[in-house]
Amino acid sequence: MTLQGTVAIVTGSGQGLGLAYAQELAAQGASVVINDVDQAAADAAVATIVEAGGTASAVVAPVGPTETAKALVDHAYETYGRLDALVTNAGILRDRTLWKMSDDDFDAVIGVHLRGTFTCVREAATRWREDGTAGHIVCIGSPTGQRGNFGQTNYAAAKAGIVGMVRTWALELKKAGITVNAVIPVAATAMTKTVPFFQKAVEADERGEPMPDFFRKELGFGTADDVAGIVAFLASDAATGITGQVVGAGGDRLQLWSHPEAVTTSYREGGWSYSALVDGFAEAAGDLQSVGEKFPQLPDELAPEPKK
Fold this sequence. Notes:
The protein has helices spanning about 15-25, 40-50, 65-80, 105-130, 145, 155-175, 200-205, 215-220, 225-235, 275-285, and strands at about 5-10, 30-35, 55-60, 85-90, 135-140, 180-185, 245-250, 255. By secondary structure, the protein is an alpha/beta fold.
C-alpha cells in the first residue's frame, strides 16, 4: 500500500527532519506541499523532490497564524485537488533557563509549535469534516515534552501540549474517520549537534558514515531518515485505525509511549491532611518518578573530544 495519488502538507519542511518527512512521503507517491519561512530553503526542498521524480510545491509563510494554516490547506486543494495528510513539524528554539527566559522567548516558541499545530490541524480537520475525507494527522513531539529538559521551559511546554492536543483530537475526530497521532523523533538535528554526548554520532553522520551501534541500538538515536518511515506510515491508509498514539522513533528503535497513568494509589480515612502527608507521604507515594532523559554511560571510544 503506497501513498500514490495522495496529497500531504509538511510544515517546517525546508530542511532537517521536516525535509526528510517530505521526501519520504513523496518517495511513497504523495504530492507534497512544502512549508518554510525561507524562500530559498523551500525552493531547494521542492527541487530535491522533483529531481527524484516526485511532485512538490511550496507555501512560504510562518506557521502560527490562522492565515498561514488556511493558505496551506487552500494551496493543497487548489493545486492538487485534495488533501489527505498533514504533518505538523514546524518549530523554533529559544533556549534559556527559567530565570533568563523572556516573555518573547516563551511566546515565540509557543506560537510556532503549539499555536501553529493547533491552527493547521483545525483548518485541515474542518475541511475534511466538510467534504468527508478520512485524513491523517501526524504531529511531531519531542522527548523534551515527555521527560523535560534543562533550559527548555517553552519547548517542553509546547511539545507536551501537542501530545495533549493529539489525544483530545483523536477523540473528537474519531467519528469522522480522521486519525491523529504524535511522533517523538530522536535524531541528529541542529539541536542535538550541540550536545557533546552525541558528538561521535553526529560526526559520523556528517561524514556520510553509519552511526556507531551504541547510538542506533542502545539509545535509539539515528538520522532524520530513520524517523521518516513512521511519519509516512501514520500519514497513510495503512495506519487507518491507529489514532491517539504517541510513537517514538530513532535509529533502530521504535517505541510506543504510554499515556500518563497513576503509578501508586493510597487511601486514608478522612483524607490527606497536611500532618498526615508529613507523616505518611513517603510510604504512600513510594519511589518518586525520575525527571529528564537518562542516558547510559558512553563507551570510552565514543566519549566526546575534550574542548581545547
